[in-house]
Amino acid sequence: MSMRFTAKARRGMAAMTIAIGLAVGVAGCGSGDTGDKKPDASASPSKSGGSQASPQEGQSAQPLAELRGPDGLSLKIMSAQRDSGGFVTVNGQLKNDGSKDAVLSSQLTGNETEIMKNGQSFGGATLVDSKARRRYYVLRDTDGRPLTTIGVQSVRAGDTVPVFMQFPAPPATTTEVDFQLPTFSSASIKISG
Description:
Blueprint: H1 2-29, E1 65-68, E2 73-82, E3 87-96, E4 102-103, H2 113-116, E5 126-129, E6 134-137, E7 154-155, E8 160-168, E9 176-180, E10 187-190
Antiparallel strand pairs: 1-2, 2-3, 3-8, 4-7, 5-6, 5-9, 9-10
Region (Disordered): 32-67
Keywords: Signal
Protein name: Secreted protein
């Protein structure tokens, strides 16, 4: 009987060791997201009210296009740069030319549930390649957050806020697209790079 007891004990210890090893392995490979941790500093909006546009080399002082929006808002597209990773990053300056503070419309975020649940953004922006009849939507990260400036709720009278939006890149042969943003006029822009 003692041999049977010893064999059972060994199997139990082996099973327990395997279970502990699997639990440690899963914990090490998991995302560790408990839902109650705060976002990294790089993902949080800046004190000026949103993410900052990344500076682009060779960015010209003259805008590629200027879009007019409601309440004295205008969006100057400063660059549309094709990146080596297969993306197009559009950088712009949102300015309030009005005499009162302008509250941004929730329509700018777009109507996709995944993007809307992440708060105010420019997730409704699209690039349209009319020749190929294709529309490119703002990219999202693995958590569904749009790769755009986020957190800009309003723009004070006379203020300018840098913004960016990132899209999948059209084919290399496509150098001109229409930029569209809800509540703003649309404009044709050239992609560089």
